[in-house]
Amino acid sequence: MTQKHYTQAPLPFQGQKRRWGKEFRQALQAFPQCTTVVDLFGGSGLLSRMAKDAMPHARVIYNDFDGYTRRIAALPRTNALLERIRPVVAPVPENKRLPAGLRDRVLELVRQEEREAGYVDYVTLSASLLFSMKYANNLAELERETLYNSLRQSPYEATGYLDGLEVVHEDYRALFARWRHRPDALFLVDPPYLSTDTHTYTGYWRLRDYLDVLHTLHGTNYIYFTSDKSQLVELCGWLEANHPVANPFRGAVRLERGTNVNYASRYTDIMLYKPLLNTD
Ligand SMILES: C[S@@+](CC[C@H](N)C(=O)[O-])C[C@H]1O[C@@H](n2cnc3c(N)ncnc32)[C@H](O)[C@@H]1O
Questions:
Q1: For residue 171, which atom of ligand 1 is closest to its CA?
Q2: What is the pTM of this model?
Q3: What is the maximum span of the chain, computed from C-alpha positions, in angstroms?
Q4: Which residue, among 139, 150, 72, has the nearest Cα to 109 in the 3D structure?
Q5: Looking at ligand 1, which residue's alpha carbon is closest to its atom 25?
Q6: Ligand 1 nearest-atom number relative to CA 197
Q7: Residue 195 Cα, ligand 1 centroid: separation in angstroms?
Q8: If you measure from the C-alpha of residue 80 to the centroid of ligand 1, how many angstroms do you get, rounded to a whole number?
Q9: Partner of 202 at 20 to 30 A CA spacing, among 23, 92, 174, 194?
């Protein structure tokens, strides 16, 4: 049996860590003593998937806070809906706007699906029908948007994606509380970024929420993701230099990647990791 090796999430998800695959797998090797991986901010579950593939004997706990696994369960229906939409948008060239008549017909198919199934994966629909990076979370939001023909040709596929993962759905603090004292636990800490890309995420994050996350990095094995936009790493360095506080990033390995959002916007993605024994 050949197992599919996922390097990106099977359904669209903003903020998935697909560009970090190689470095992430290398970082995992710094934690040979860890037998459980706890993905506190699981999102699409991609880090959990990659961790399980790299460490098949470890327990991997994927915290699905956004209902991504529900989207995966609905995937056959989502594919079927896209299959019905495809002939409607076919007369429109790729990435071009749908005229009013076709737009109405597409929206009617979505309404019908919502009536029949009681659930529609609006994030995946958004990736198929909205301008790049735009997302609608429900029918009302979709109805307000200009629609485009951005459907991809092949159906979505998620065979085996959740195999071997333990899925939970809870606030990261509750999950962390259960595992925090375990020296054999490795925490994956990829919180929503400060003021970026938070539209499709559940809830709203303020500065103190980002600071609270730092509690998960004190005296634990961790791999933490951030970007230079949040400047939390700099803040911790400043506090350490100017006040008698412990900096959770002291001694951590730091890797960076440049990211272009569009021609006008550029930032640096950062991954930091530190095994528990390396406390100096
Ligand atoms: C940057 S994304 C994680 C992306 C993920 N690593 C991936 O590769 O797909 C941050 C996630 O944290 C979730 N989140 C927000 N508040 C949370 C909370 N209180 N507890 C757990 N997860 C939360 C967001 O909904 C979002 O899915």
A1: 20
A2: 0.91
A3: 66
A4: 139
A5: 201
A6: 1
A7: 14
A8: 28
A9: 23
Positive or negative, the CA dihedral 20, 21, 24, 26 is: negative
Residue 259's φ and ψ, nearest 5 degrees, are: -135, 130
User: What's the gap in Å between 9 CA and the centre of ligand 1?
Assistant: 14
Question: Is 278 a residue whose pLDDT tops 60?
Answer: no
67-72's contacts with Cβ under 8 Å and 24+ in sequence apart are 67/169, 68/9, 68/11, 68/13, 68/42, 68/43, 68/44, 69/45, 69/162, 69/167, 70/119, 71/11, 71/121, 71/123, 71/124, 72/10, 72/11, 72/158, 72/161, 72/162
User: What is the CB < 6 Å shell around ligand 1?
Assistant: 9, 13, 15-17, 41, 43-44, 46-47, 63, 65-66, 171-172, 190-192, 201-203
pLDDT of the residue at 279: 47
Token pair belonging to 188: 């994956």
pLDDT attached to residue 203: 58
Domains (range + CATH), the chain:
18-67+169-274 (3.40.50.150), 71-143 (no CATH)
Q: Which two tokens stand for residue 278?
A: 């390396």
